[in-house]
Amino acid sequence: MATTNVDRARANKRQTKNDGEFSRIMNATDTKSKSQALYEEALSVLPGGISRNTIYRKPHPDYAVRGAGCRVTDIDGITRIDFANNMASLIHGHANQQIVDAVTSQLSRGTAFTMATEAELRFAQHMCRRNEGFDKIRFMNSGTEAVMAAIKAARAITGRPKIAKSEGAYHGTYDYAEVSQKSKPENWGSDANPESVPVVEGTPQAALDDVIVFPFNDTERTIDILDRHASQLACVLIDPLPHRVGLTPANGDYLAAIRNWTRDNGALLVLDEVITFRMGYGGAQDWYEFQPDLTAMGKIIGGGFPVGALAGKDEYMSVLDPTRDRLPFPFSGTFSANPITMTAGRVAMELFDVAAVDKLNKLGEYARQKIAGAIEASGVVACVTGAGSMFRVHLKPEPPLDYRAAYQNAEEIAQIAFLVNYLYDRGFMMINTCSAALSTALSETEIDQLADTFEAGLTELRNNS
Ligand SMILES: Cc1ncc(COP(=O)(O)O)c(C=O)c1O
Question: Is the N or C terminus of the chain more exposed, i.e. has fewer CB atoms within 10 Å?
Answer without folding.
Answer: C
